[in-house]
């Protein structure tokens, strides 16, 4: 959608339906900002709602709704995800959130999740090792919410549900 835009991009008010690979794509983003807000994405065949590939930096996603699993195949940096709703598509063995960060400056909070059923580890947030860069990753999901299968019962997502991976790379 915004591929090749590199920086100063706004993608808002879109409805993405029947996407073959990804809902919204803005690669490469070199420092941004690239704003994705108030978009609705569903029936995404195999990919994530946001394609933050090519080591993207500066992506900002606010107030989006997606029936898809947020997965990033490449690590990204300086991305902020706030007040988004991610409803799992119940893909076999697929986590609802699986992302890797190049820096500890990325964050996500106040998002809602409907985890995939039958998956033991629904959340994976990988970031650099503690002390290598500013390390504030452990308080990022403080206000996140998890929704039950009916979509109505809300509970907080305790940080213990996230499998945090730290590496020295």
Write up what this structure looks like.
The chain has 169 residues and is mainly β. It has one domain. It contains no helices and 18 strands. The strands form 4 sheets. The chain has a 7-stranded mixed beta sheet, with no helix packed on it. A 5-stranded parallel beta sheet has the order 1-4-7-10-13, with no helix packed on it. The protein has a 4-stranded parallel beta sheet with strand order 9-12-15-18, with no helix packed on it. Strand 16 and strand 17 form a beta hairpin. The radius of gyration is 15 Å and the shape is globular. It starts with 8 loop residues before the first strand and ends with a strand. The C terminus is likely disordered.
Summed up:
With 169 residues, this protein is mainly β. It has no helices and 18 strands. The protein has one domain (9-167).
Helix-and-strand structural type: mainly beta
The overall pLDDT average reads 77
The separation of the N and C termini measures 31 Å
Tally of separate domains: 1
- Write down how many β-strands occur, each being a DSSP E stretch of 2 or more residues: 18
User: What is the succession of H and E elements?
Assistant: EEEEEEEEEEEEEEEEEE
Give the uncertain stretches in residue-range form: 131-140, 158-169
**What is the overall shape?**
globular
Number of helices: 0
The amount of beta strand, in percent, is: 35-45%
Main sheet specs: 7 strands, mixed
How do the strands of the widest beta sheet line up side by side?
2-5-8-11-14-16-17
Radius of gyration: 15 Å
Approximate helicity band: under 10%
